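Acetylxylan esterase
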Amino acid sequence: MPLTDLPLDQLRAYRPEVRRPADLDAFWADTIAEARAAGAGTAPVTTPAETPVTALDVQDLTFPGFGGDPVRAWVSRPAGTADQDLPVVVEFLGYGGGRGLPGERVSWALAGFVHVVMDTRGQGSGWGSGGDTPDPHGSVPHVGGWMASGVDAPANHYYRRVFTDAVRLVEAVRTLPGVDVDRIALTGGSQGGGITLAAAALVEAHVGPLVAVLPDVAFLCDWEHGTAVAVGGPYLELATHLSVHRDDVDRVWDTVAYFDGVHFAERISAPALFSVALMDDVVPPRTTFAAYNALGSADREIAVYPYNGHEGGGFRHWERQVAFLRDRL
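Predicted structure tokens:
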């Protein structure tokens, strides 16, 4: 597999101009306030999950997300630690996947953390073991997938709902027993990495500080340039949409600017560990570097995997994430 983007020295210096909405912060402040109001009468609920896994205590969490809609998550922790306030890792998932089965994702909890996996609304049938959260909101006609869903206006875009769900999840997690609210980290790969960046910036602005941010081969950054150079993956949905809607180019890019990880990265102050793979044909490396190079964090690292594709560093990188997080707890 060949290198898919610029040489590494150029990637480290890559700082593109990304469309910047003048009302970005107000847009998100209003969105989060509306979601809080819509879910004000609904408390998060946990019930024991049915799973053959016995080394972990797994709970099924339902919490009010965007519009007060019920969103699902798994909460896992080492068995026998209910009386301890443990650090938390909240994880967001890659494109098309759902939260899967209880006990399916065990690594973070086995490493001693409370592990929370958010279901991504409307997804869960592309890979893995399925999801349990519908997206009840409609959209204008668009190419299959979610990149162009609601692309007619920022208020309608799919990722407005998903990013809001992520913030509301962190708020819900802070109310759960047995969690250390001062030691919450966010992570995710690909789409989950992009959600991590958005959630981190919005949580720091509207909820409270985070102990670390761990986006892995992060998608949803530098959307316009990513669509121009990607050779596979969901960015091509936008290219296909624009090949049909030829007169909508500026409207599309003006809309998705509200969801660009570069803008969120600028607003993050928590310690951050990124990863990037230089043979990634789904997330062009320049898009990850665009967010990393804009990052507001003083304490930051990026792991570069020169000969990997979209799988990135795999379990080796997870080990690095654990070490990075433990150093900052």
